[in-house]
Amino acid sequence: MTTPPVTTEPRHTADVVLARLERLGRLDWSEARTRLAGTTCAWADLDGFHVAPATALPEAAPHATHLWAWDASRSLRLRIDGSQALVAALQLGQDGGEQVRVQARPGTPWAEDDQQVGPLAPEAHALAFELLELSGPAPATFVRASAP
Asked: How do the pLDDT tens digits run along the chain, 148 residues long?
């Protein structure tokens, strides 16, 4: 076995982009689901990692800590707390509202044989994920994906 060379180069470099951040606040799950209309969603719960359209979300909040959603113009991040969710939306390159700098970098779901989140659906590896990271006093990561 050989040891990989030590490097100070980052594994993935990030592009800095401007975006508009909108804090939607703490919403009941039914209201949060309404805000996700037209998006694709990703979350990990006791049944594994899921990628599905918002129309396929469960009626009750999933047993997950976070849910990420995206469409062509926005990315949403939900921090799920029981029957409520703390919701924020990010729109890249949008004027108006609170302008923030976002570090955009490639992301991947867990490895196919990783059992931390249960079985992974094939959809998890059929997409190219991008992490949109806000730094500062309230760091947060948004996720969006597209076909590779």
From this structure: 445 555 555 555 788 888 999 999 999 999 999 999 999 999 988 887 888 999 999 999 999 999 999 999 999 999 999 999 999 999 988 677 778 899 999 987 777 676 676 667 676 777 888 999 998 888 899 999 986 5
DSSP single-letter state for residue 148: -
Structure token pair of residue 86:
């703390």
Largest CA distance in the chain: 54
Q: Six-digit token pair at 128?
A: 């190219």
Report the run of H or E that residue 31 belongs to, with start and end: helix 29-35
Amino acid 104 reads: A
**DSSP-derived secondary structure for 67-84:** EEEE-SS-EEEEEEETTE
DSSP state of 29: H
